[in-house]
Design goal:
The chain has two domains: 151 residues, no CATH class; 111 residues, no CATH class. With 315 residues, the protein is an alpha/beta fold. Helices cover 35% and strands 9% of the residues. Strands 2-1-3-4-5 form a five-stranded mixed beta sheet. Bound molecules: iron/sulfur cluster (SF4) (3 copies).
């Protein structure tokens, strides 16, 4: 099958029975954990207000376990709810969280950064067939045409290290990569072309900071980009300040970003933030053999010094 033919294929990728089975397993596990007091709360997904949508849910009553669902609309990375920014949830006691493989990379990263202790969280992992990408119609099933770009080349569908796994992975066709092609196009540009590419995208940024609010790794209580005495980054959406904000953001997330693509999904201006994240991740893998979120590590390569680090860039 050609890439184009595959991308236009609108037949369901998986049987609806798969989502029903995952939902059933999550509900049973949530009810058990809340009833026997293992956890004080379960962070998962519930149906959204519009048919076919989903939204985050935090339940503390086992009678509400049947509100939980898993569907191709369960896009949010719920690891966000275990960060400092959401400290009220953590105060309730040990919590369970429903996590797709990409979300588990964020949990591992947060543990590596001492933001979360493994013993304080019960992970209900999902054997994940994928979720829908931005712009997919709400009533549609998951297809090769509407699956999120990140899911086309996912390597963490069967998460490891969870306390329980909901569902079993159905057989899936080989999907043509889209993210890898985007990255290859970016890398084929000259430095000047690449600068223009990012300058054009960043010029559209309205500094709403949705990308920061949704990121599990943007948990600083005072972001240096908000400081005005001294001001490190101009806060109004003008070209120089926008460029500075995006450089700070990209560097701060290098070696930490879990690749969940939530920042890109949240961006109202369609700025390809995850393309920049992936480029940075690729550089760190090539330079330091580092991949974020595969295991809890105390420090990424940009936060530690080793004598054998490459020094050739210092002139
Ligand atoms: S990237 Fe992988 S784990 Fe994450 S939603 Fe897509 S298929 Fe699931
Ligand atoms: S930078 Fe974006 S892709 Fe990376 S962890 Fe944060 S929200 Fe997810
Ligand atoms: S979400 Fe988009 S528009 Fe808003 S600050 Fe981030 S990059 Fe800019």
């Amino acid at each position: 099958m050609t890439n184009t033919a595959q991308q236009l294929d609108t037949t369901p990728l998986v049987d609806t029975g798969y989502y029903a089975a995952v939902t059933e397993a999550i509900r049973a596990e949530a009810a058990r954990l809340l009833t026997d007091g293992t956890v004080a709360a379960v962070i998962g997904y519930q149906a959204g207000k519009r048919k076919g949508t989903a939204m985050p849910a935090i339940i503390t009553d086992p009678a509400r376990a049947n509100d939980l669902i898993f569907s191709p609309a369960c896009v949010n990375n719920l690891a966000l709810y275990l960060t400092k920014a959401k400290k009220d949830i953590r105060k309730t006691g040990k919590v369970a969280i429903v996590a797709k493989g990409c979300d588990m990379r964020a949990l591992a990263g947060l543990m590596g950064e001492s933001q979360l202790k493994r013993e304080d969280v019960h992970i209900i992992a999902v054997a994940c067939a994928g979720v829908k990408g931005s712009g997919a119609a709400t009533g549609e099933p998951l297809t090769t045409a509407n699956i999120a770009k990140k899911c086309r080349e996912c390597t963490v569908r069967e998460p490891k290290g969870a306390d329980s796994v909901a569902g079993s992975l159905p057989s899936l066709p080989e999907l043509s990569p889209v993210e890898a092609e985007e990255l290859a196009r970016l890398e084929a540009m000259t430095p000047r072309e690449r600068w223009s590419f990012w300058k054009e995208h960043f010029s559209r940024c309205v500094r709403c900071l949705a990308c920061r609010s949704i990121c599990p790794f943007c948990y600083c209580e005072q972001c240096m980009c908000d400081r005005n005495r001294p001001q490190a980054v101009e806060t109004s959406p003008r070209p120089a300040g926008n460029m500075a904000w995006h450089i700070v953001r990209a560097m701060h997330l290098s070696g930490r970003c879990a690749g969940c693509a939530e920042c890109e999904r949240a961006c109202p201006m369609d700025i390809p933030l995850n393309l920049l994240n992936r480029k940075m991740a690729k550089e760190l893998k090539e330079l330091y053999g580092h991949e974020a979120g595969l295991e809890p590590k105390e420090k990424g390569p940009l936060a530690e010094y080793r004598e054998d680090d490459d020094q050739s860039f210092i002139k």
